[in-house]
Specification:
- Chain A is 46% helix and 6% strand.
- Chain A has 14 helices and 6 strands.
- In chain A, the strands form 3 sheets. Chain A has a two-stranded antiparallel sheet. A two-stranded antiparallel ribbon of chain A has the order 2-3. In chain A, strands 5-6 form a two-stranded antiparallel sheet.
- In chain A, helix 2 crosses helix 6 and helix 10 packs across helix 12.
- By secondary structure, chain B is an alpha+beta fold.
- Chain B is 25% helix and 27% strand.
- The relative contact order of chain B is 0.11.
- Classes of the chains: A mainly alpha, B alpha+beta.
Chain lengths: 249, 264
């Protein structure tokens, strides 16, 4: 076990330099950034297992939620600590790069940017899984957390980067109902494609139009589904049509 | 020339008709207070419900103020669960409870007492472009439309040691013309400004006024739907504004050029 730390600016720069170098030569040694020049211990003291294995983003989010719950620290205080998220990416670097076989090209996947820089904040590989899981729980967050920690999730990039969508639980519920295949534990094929009728990209556009007309927050997920145009028909679960009246209430 | 789709005749609550401020303890934002929302003249039925939403990024808090005919002020609530209470923006919604349609709204409201972020007076009269130093990775600057009613904020990379970007000749010459071009393009092509004489959004009006102060006449129409000719006129107008802006700082430009070539 190791005490949780927050990366300082100097540590961030060293980590960024390491990312540049490891993309060229994946055998190089990770620098030691666990000292006060590069990072500082998080207060209150929380320990994590640097060798814990996560098969999915969901497992990662569950682990962090459990760890944070044991301490007195509040969710709203954790999510703004970008240094903490960068340090976690540093410490779990092998896991979130599939043992360096999948090192992504953008530094922001590993170095957490300020939440004010929202679109880039949401491509970090550790912070969003925790934020989404702690916001929406299961089963809804499965949509964004079903794949391995080192993989980009198209749905997260499309939905979570849109602050209106991600903050509305009823919209997330609709997305889950339309695009998630519970039997396979992953999104339905074509859900995030650009050229498939009624895919998530179109859904986002349609919801953005609804947002101007309807008080989306007050609507149930069934009421939102009911308003969707014909092109979404193929995505609407069979049971919705059967129990339409119940959903709409 | 109103072109923004508004099939439901949704009304806009003007910013000046909302009086909203933060509540602070030891200089820390803990909640908000709405002193008043003036809905007079909007012809909203008394049974319509009024909500206020405080939001920032993934955080959202919604409060019900009640029916239009029974609103009581001041209305107070806390922002305990918000990760960034001082960054909260507010949205006011007036909703018909029978069909959940929005009858009137105001969005991206900053409280009256929100910290002003290093206002940078581009006109010397009205601070129309606040500057905020922030983490932008390897980007030098960016415009975000996160101010009051979606007004622009110039984000500058916090790693760049500038006190006031406009006072730095190089930053002024390199960045501000591009900023002006982007903002005017945004006003016309993204926001689709609804009038050249009486825009409903205050910051649009301020920026049009700024272009007039540069000595550029505003075109009769800034509408461009299916009208390539007017699109060209608009782009020409934007270019003219940028040109005049640069002319205004010609002395600084000459001085900058001299650093390369010296006195000839």
């Amino acid at each position: 076990m190791i005490a949780l730390r927050c990366m300082l600016e100097k540590g961030e720069e060293s980590f960024r330099q390491f990312l540049i170098e490891v993309r060229k030569d994946d055998s190089i040694k990770k620098p030691n950034l666990n000292n006060d020049d590069f990072s500082k211990e998080f207060s209150p003291k929380i320990t994590i297992d640097p060798w814990h294995r996560f098969n999915t983003k969901q497992e990662l989010a569950e682990y962090l939620t459990k760890v944070f719950k044991k301490s007195i620290v509040k969710r709203e205080d954790i999510i703004k600590e970008k240094g903490l998220w960068t340090w976690l990416a540093y410490i779990w670097f092998e896991q979130i790069t599939n043992s360096r076989k999948n090192i992504l090209t953008r530094d922001e996947h590993y170095i957490c940017t300020s939440p004010s820089n929202y679109r880039r904040y949401y491509i970090h590989l550790i912070a969003p899984p925790y934020i989404i899981y702690s916001l929406h729980g299961l089963p809804l967050s499965k949509l964004f957390l079903y794949n391995p920690p080192w993989q980009i999730n198209d749905l997260t990039e499309r939905v979570a980067a849109n602050q209106f969508l991600i903050s509305h639980k009823n919209i997330i519920k609709v997305i889950y109902r339309l695009y998630f295949d519970e039997s396979r534990g992953r999104p339905k094929p074509g859900a995030a494609s650009g050229d498939v009728e009624g895919s998530i990209r179109r859904f986002i556009k349609v919801i953005q139009q609804f947002e101007f007309t309807y008080d989306i927050y007050s609507m149930t997920s069934g009421q939102i589904i009911y308003l969707l145009p014909e092109e979404f028909k193929r995505w609407i679960p069979e049971e919705f049509n059967r129990w339409k009246n119940l959903y709409i209430k | 020339m109103k072109r923004v789709l508004n099939f439901t005749d949704r009304k806009r609550i003007k910013r000046k008709n909302v009086s909203l401020r933060f509540e602070k303890e030891n200089n820390k934002v803990t909640g908000f207070v709405i002193e008043n929302i003036d809905l007079n003249g909007l012809e909203i039925p008394g049974h319509a419900l009024v909500y206020v939403e405080a939001y920032y990024r993934t955080e959202l808090k919604r409060c019900k103020l009640g029916a239009v005919n029974s609103l009581t002020f001041p209305f107070k609530d806390n922002l305990d669960e918000m990760a960034y209470p001082k960054n909260s923006k507010f949205r006011i919604l007036v909703v018909d409870p029978s069909d959940l349609k929005i009858l009137a709204h105001a969005d991206k409201i900053s409280p009256d007492d929100a910290d002003k972020i290093s206002p940078d007076k581009i006109t010397g009269k009205i601070a129309i472009l606040p500057v905020q130093f922030t983490d932008l990775g390897n980007e030098i600057w960016r415009i975000e439309y996160e101010g009051d009613e979606g007004s622009p904020i110039l984000l500058v990379n916090e790693k760049i040691p500038l006190n006031s970007p406009r006072q730095d000749p190089q930053f002024l010459l390199f960045v501000y013309p591009a900023v002006l071009r982007e903002i005017l393009t945004h006003i016309v092509f993204i926001d689709k400004i609804d009038s050249t004489t009486e825009p409903t959004i205050d910051w649009h009006r301020n920026w049009l006024k700024f272009t007039q102060e540069l000595g550029v006449e505003i075109p009769e129409s800034l509408s461009f739907d299916d009208d390539n000719e007017n699109r060209d006129n608009i782009l020409e107008w934007i270019n003219k504004c940028v040109e005049e802006f640069c002319n205004k700082y010609s002395k600084k430009f000459q001085e900058y050029v001299k650093t390369f070539w010296g006195e000839i």
